[in-house]
Design a protein that fits this description.
The chain folds into two domains: 277 residues, Alkaline Phosphatase, subunit A, CATH 3.40.720; 93 residues, Gyrase A, domain 2, CATH 3.30.1360. 28% of the residues lie in helices and 18% in strands. It has twelve helices and 20 strands. The strands form six sheets. The chain has an eight-stranded mixed β-sheet with strand order 7-6-8-1-9-18-2-19, sandwiched between helices. It has a four-stranded antiparallel β-sheet with strand order 12-13-15-14. A two-stranded parallel sheet has the order 3-20. The two termini are 36 Å apart.
Length: 410
């Protein structure tokens, strides 16, 4: 009895004095990593050996289907709410709401910090409400007090922060004393997406970005191993969408189709939102709803049901979607210096070039398994299961991802 007590005391002292001891089941860390713009078939390029090793030691999906529209903010928020963009309200990277004075522009911090834009309840908010500390090293929405709640630790997005520095911050949070240490953490990398937009998906710059981000993942893995946390941590690596090469010849000039004086254009780009001006609805619909070589248009309530899109009040009355490789612009926009990108996303989520990726490794995951494609709304119920928290109502289906987990883990 005395020996047992001494051993127990020694274990308690070691746990109290060290931040590197593995957690017990049910209290282990969960790290959600996003590599923005990592197309599912980028695996085949051989530029990401660390990610490949994680897949070999864990599970990988053949692909993950993003939600529509295949844009960054809508899909990142879907991953942490389990809601389609039509249901959580981040329906585009840029949007308007008749009830708000300012537009939402994803690159302008001041415009996104109004919590009224953000519907649903993201994972870090649910975690905090259920006494699970969270820490976000960048994630769309994580610097906003949604429902009055912020993560315990968070950083406002700063693209100048290097991948290594982002990893080091996550590791520093894991080094905190147990009483302050977060259990749910996010880590976001935007470099692959950035190079894809600037140079196209098949460019050497994208290959270099893949190499750089894989090195950052290696730094994370090495840091977890050094802390004796690697085999006690569930690590989930995802992307938000893929990327397609574009062609200037596939651009559609909206002012060649309809007089711009007859419409308010909410968005140009891949998914254009259009509001006819008073008395012009019939003329505008007649012009837009006919067939076009590189564009298809719908009334907001008439999009294909498989897109799960078209009911939210922020969605404009008419939507025009560019065909893959195309874009929607105007002569006036181009003359004012409008940016043309050789790589784009936002297209139909059925297109293979828009497919995202999913890899996971950890004590709760199976080993060496490749599973069929699933929808990204299904990631949310998986994450809540791993954290042991009660999920909010969502569009995901845990049965679609239950096979990722080891027997007994669900």
């Amino acid at each position: 009895m005395r020996r047992f007590t001494l051993v127990a005391l020694l274990c308690l002292v070691a746990a109290a004095c060290s931040s590197v001891a593995p957690r017990n089941a049910g209290t282990r860390p969960l790290i959600l990593v996003s590599i923005d713009g990592f197309r599912a078939d980028y695996f085949a390029r051989g530029r990401t050996p660390t990610l490949a090793a994680l897949a070999t030691e864990g599970v990988r999906a053949e692909a993950m289907k993003p939600s529509f529209p295949t844009l960054t903010f809508p899909n990142h928020y879907t991953l942490v709410t389990g809601l389609y963009p039509d249901h959580h309200g981040i329906i585009h990277n840029r949007m308007s709401d008749p009830a708000f004075e300012h537009r939402f522009v994803y690159k302008e911090q001041a415009t996104i910090e109004d919590p009224r834009w953000w519907g649903g309840e993201p994972l870090w908010v649910s975690a905090e409400k259920q006494d699970v500390r969270s820490a976000t090293m960048f994630w769309p929405g994580s610097s906003v007090a949604i429902a009055g709640v912020l993560p315990t630790y968070w950083k406002a997005f700063d693209g100048k922060v290097t991948p290594d520095a982002r990893v080091d911050q996550v590791l520093a949070w894991l080094d905190l004393p147990a009483s302050r240490r977060p259990r749910f953490l996010t880590l976001y990398f935007d470099q692959v997406d950035h190079e894809g937009h600037e140079h196209g998906p098949d460019s050497p710059e994208v290959d270099a970005a893949l190499t750089d981000i894989d090195a950052a993942l290696a730094r994370l893995v090495a840091g977890l191993r050094h802390r004796r946390l690697l085999d006690a941590t569930d690590l989930v690596v995802v992307s938000d969408h893929g990327l397609a090469a574009t062609s200037p010849e596939r651009r559609t000039y909206l002012d060649d189709v309809v007089p711009l004086a007859d419409v308010d254009v909410v968005n140009y780009g891949i998914l254009a939102g259009i509001e006819p001006r008073a008395g012009k609805t019939a003329d505008v619909e007649r012009a837009l709803l006919q067939p076009h070589p590189h564009m298809q248009c719908w009334r907001k309530g008439e999009l294909p049901a498989r897109l799960h899109y078209g009911t939210h009040p922020r969605i404009p009355s008419l939507l025009c979607l560019a065909g893959t490789g195309g874009s929607i612009t105007s002569h006036e926009y181009d003359e004012k210096g409008g940016h043309y990108s050789p790589g784009e996303h936002g297209y139909d989520n059925d297109d293979p070039s828009m497919r995202a990726m999913f890899v996971a490794r950890g004590p709760d995951f199976r080993r060496g398994v490749v599973v069929p494609e699933f929808d990204n709304v299904d990631v949310y119920p998986l994450l809540t299961k791993l954290l042991g928290i009660t999920p909010r109502p969502n569009d995901g289906d845990f049965s679609h991802v239950a096979g990722l987990l080891r027997d007994g883990a669900h």
